[in-house]
Structure formats: C-alpha cells, structure tokens
C-alpha cells in the first residue's frame, strides 16, 4: 500500500490512516510542519525565530530547505541554523526534526543533476548521512519540484533516477547505528506531473511515507480566480482532479 500524507500549507497537516510514527506526542496522526529557514531574517514584526515555533502542535518539523552545492553535490548549512532547529528537541523530546531538500528554488534542478550519475549520487548520499549525524536530524525529506519537468530544471530520465537516489539513501541509512532514521518524499496531486516524474510504487519501497503536496491545484492556467488550495472537490474542478476523486 502506498503511504501518503496530505500537505495543506507551509505548516502542514499530515493525514494518514495506518502509519503510526514513533514519536508523535501521543497522536495517531502525525502533524508535519515545514518551517522556512529564512523566517528569522524578515523585518519586525514579521520575523519568526526558531524559538517561536509552537512545537506542541507538530510531531515532525521539516527544515525547509537545506542548500545543495551545485559543484560538489554536498549539503550546506548556508544560514548556520541546522543546530538551532534540532535543539528544539531539548524542549520537546518527542519531536522529530527532519532536513528537507529541494523546494521552490533552483535547488530542485540540482537534485536532477545529482540523481543522473552514480558518482554524484554517492557524494550526495554521503553528505546526507554526515549531515544528519553531525546535527542530530531524525531523517531526510526530499521535496523535489518537479522531476521530469524541463521548466524546473528536470530531465526525462528523472523518474528512474529518482528511484535510484532514494534507494541508495535508504541503504546508507540502514547501515547507520541509528535504525530510526526517516526518509520521506513530497509528491504532487496533479496526475500529469506525477506520471512524468514519480514512480510511486518503486519509491514507496524505500520511504517511510510520502507527503502529498495539496496546494497549487489552482492557477493562472484556469483563466479564473479560485481557491489556491481547495480542501474539498467541487463541480468546477479540472477533469484530471475529478476522475481521481475518492
């Protein structure tokens, strides 16, 4: 069975019936919060420091997003805030803090290049393990937007390469002393984008769960003003969403 969580916004709610996370503040349903690494740089009163995060509402916090060095294929703590995030576990011991890579910048294009070659995958995987270990992260989340899409820096081989990358990360995690490291991926709800770059059933073999990206279901391509992230299906939904309605 494919394990999927639904992301509704930047602070996200995970909906999953049968998955029971190891540390979830006593909840059966995990609540996954993506926190932007730049929030503390905003001018007052819009700045938002790590210490302001209401950890009582989250079972998992994902650092969004770690930078990738395009030349070395290694992770970078550009903002110097990795340790600040994982230190949240000192005040909330049951909290799981994960490192997320990808997102809405050119970083997703870097993942395409990394996944395309065995050597760069090995370098990236080594960097991932070293970073998780050094900063006490509880796992890795890959938020690749969007494999197989040229406009996002992708290539047609991404779908197959993505599985290879995730498989090698999982294998490296299994060799660690910590056997509770998590591996998750973000997947879109658009059938067109999904089919182009995500081999769901193969990815599911190696990840703990998938985060369904439940936004950007409306946009300028519809030629009408509408809700950006609708929660329930409606009569005006595009055909591809209607036919996948459950």
From TrEMBL:
PROSITE patterns tied to this protein: GH18_2
Q: Which Pfam families match?
A: Glyco_hydro_18 (PF00704)
Cellular component (GO) terms are: extracellular region
What residue stretch is flagged as signal peptide? 1-16
GH18 domain boundaries = 29-246
* SMART domains found in the cross-reference section: Glyco_18 (SM00636)
| Molecular function as annotated in GO | chitin binding; chitinase activity
Q: What keywords is this UniProt entry annotated with? A: Signal
Q: Name one GO biological process term.
A: carbohydrate metabolic process
Identification of the protein by name: Chitinase
Q: What is the lineage of its organism?
A: Eukaryota, Metazoa, Ecdysozoa, Arthropoda, Chelicerata
């Amino acid at each position: 069975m494919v394990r999927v969580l639904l992301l509704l916004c930047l602070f996200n709610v995970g909906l999953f019936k049968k998955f029971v996370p190891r540390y979830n503040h006593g909840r059966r349903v995990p609540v996954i919060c993506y926190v932007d690494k730049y929030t503390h740089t905003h001018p007052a009163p819009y700045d938002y420091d790590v210490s302001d995060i209401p950890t009582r509402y989250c079972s998992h916090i994902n650092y969004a997003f770690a930078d990738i060095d395009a030349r070395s294929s290694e992770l970078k703590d550009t903002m110097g805030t990795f340790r600040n995030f994982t230190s949240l576990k000192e005040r909330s011991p049951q909290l799981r803090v994960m490192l997320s890579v990808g997102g809405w910048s050119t970083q997703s294009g870097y993942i395409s290049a990394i996944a395309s070659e065995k050597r760069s995958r090995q370098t990236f995987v080594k960097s991932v393990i070293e970073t998780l270990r050094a900063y006490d992260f509880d796992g890795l989340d890959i938020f690749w937007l969007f494999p197989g899409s040229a406009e996002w820096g992708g290539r047609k081989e991404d779908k197959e390469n993505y599985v290879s990358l995730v498989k090698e990360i999982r294998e490296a995690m299994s060799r660690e002393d910590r056997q509770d490291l998590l591996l998750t991926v973000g997947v879109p709800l658009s059938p067109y984008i999904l089919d182009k770059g995500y081999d769901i059933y193969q990815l599911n073999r190696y990840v703990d769960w998938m985060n369904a990206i439940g936004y950007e279901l409306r946009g300028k391509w519809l030629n009408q003003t509408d809700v950006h992230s609708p929660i329930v299906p409606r009569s005006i939904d595009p055909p591809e969403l209607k036919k996948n309605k459950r």
